[in-house]
Design goal:
Layout (H helix, E strand, L loop, with lengths): L4 H5 L3 E2 L20 E2 L15 E6 L3 E7 L2 H6 L7 E3 L2 H11 L3 E5 L1 H12 L3 E4 L6 H12 L2 E4 L10 E7 L5 E6 L13 H5 L1 E7 L6 H16 L3 E5 L3 H6 L1 H11 L2 E5 H8 L4 H9 L4 E5 L5 E5 L2 E5 L13 H14 L4 H15 L16
Parallel strand pairs: 3-7, 3-11, 4-9, 5-10, 7-8, 11-12, 12-13, 13-14
Antiparallel strand pairs: 1-2, 4-6, 9-10, 14-15, 15-16
Helix pairs in contact: 4-12, 10-11, 12-13
Length: 371
């Protein structure tokens, strides 16, 4: 049975007009008539006014981003386009080998909430860091862009996590992640008051690798729904989905009101050979789904309707790091101000196009100036 929370707490009209129709080759969406759904545009949801529009929860990492030739990947036996978990020794080996790099607070959900704030919506973030310099830097970076940081209990024994991102000349990113303290988040680190005061809880699939984090997700989703708030999830990575498929399927079916995924991730979740098959599978499991399809744009699945929205062209793709994160930011910002689903996807495409035009997973301009 599809949860009815979305219909109960969202309330404006969303629809598509013919100019937004686009064939992905896999799907040919039908024209969509306007239908009633709810809006977060009045910035109220659940029990009284929401203090935050989006509350993110995920791995609190510091990104180390560097350009390197394909030969670097070969020399250090890295698989292009993959995200590999590494230990401390491997992380330090790659860090030293790369030399000059850009360092900034990162993590998928953290990138998203920074994008939300850049659009002008109110955001908070829950993640675990260590009591070290990088932990302090992470929190300061979020506060500098207007995101409230709730770190939970700081860990003194395990360093703050970091993600080493190698960007090759074709703009593909290869990530080597040392999770450190970030992976130790558990139910005791979840600020339930912040979640209850956020219109939308946004959870990062990358955090799903430990049983303690799974418990934290379930608890956080329960707190949000008890306060009559919405719960969103990003699948993050197809390999992560394959490791935890059954748990993800149960979470999506039981708790998720809005699911974000790319084509590979949604197909991995439902073990299908085509995007069309995956869409048919997810349709009965989740009220609202946004699937990014690379340069073709995105597909929004809502009930029996499929809305295809093209990507925003960019002159040159420099670094695809953060594209999905910023798409989610734009989409959720659109929901908070009561825009149509097509407009939400367009906001997502605008944010994604900005972030892939330069190095780094965060916008270099205020996103609200682009819409």
């Amino acid at each position: 049975m599809v949860p009815n929370r979305w219909a109960n707490s969202l309330g404006a009209a969303f629809g598509a007009t013919p100019e937004h129709e686009l064939s992905f080759g896999l799907l040919s969406p039908k024209p969509c008539s306007v239908r009633p759904v709810n809006s977060l545009g009045n910035r109220r949801s659940g029990d009284g006014e929401a203090h935050f529009d989006v509350v993110g929860m995920g791995n609190a990492l510091v990104d180390v981003i560097a350009h390197a030739p394909d030969s670097f990947l070969d020399e250090y036996q890295l698989t292009k386009g993959w995200m590999a978990l590494v230990d401390t020794d491997r992380a330090m080996q790659l860090y030293r080998a790369l030399g000059s790099a850009v360092e900034m607070s990162g993590g998928s959900a953290a990138n998203t909430v920074c994008g939300v704030a850049s659009f002008g919506s109110r955001a908070a973030y829950i993640g675990k860091v260590s009591a070290d310099d990088l932990g302090d830097v992470f929190g300061h970076d979020l506060l500098a862009v207007g995101v409230q940081f709730r770190p939970g209990g700081r860990n003194n024994d395990v360093p703050t996590g970091r993600c080493i991102i190698v960007v090759t000349p074709d703009a593909e990113r290869t990530m080597n992640t040392y999770l450190g303290a970030s992976s130790l988040l558990d139910v005791d680190d979840v600020d339930t008051d912040v979640i209850a005061r956020g219109a939308m809880l946004y959870m990062e699939g990358y955090l799903f690798d430990r049983i303690e984090a799974k418990h934290a997700f379930r608890m956080a989703a329960g707190v949000a729904h008890q306060a009559d708030r919405q719960v969103s999830l990003t699948l993050s990575d197809s390999f992560c989905v394959e490791r935890h498929r059954d748990d993800f399927l149960a979470l999506v079916s039981d708790e998720v009101d809005l699911l974000f995924a790319n084509e590979a991730e949604i197909m991995a979740l439902y073990e299908t050979e085509t995007l069309d098959q995956a869409v048919q599978a997810v349709r009965s499991e989740c009220p609202l789904v946004a699937v990014t399809v690379g340069a073709k744009g995105s597909l929004v699945v809502s009930g029996g309707e499929d809305l295809a929205v093209p990507a925003v062209p960019v002159r040159k793709v420099v670094d695809t790091t953060g594209a999905g994160d910023l798409y989610a930011a734009g989409f959720m910002h659109g929901l908070t101000i009561g825009r149509t689903l097509v407009e939400c996807a367009e906001f997502g495409s605008i944010a994604a196009s900005e972030v892939i035009s330069h190095v780094g997973p965060r916008p270099l301009v205020e996103l609200h100036t682009l819409v």
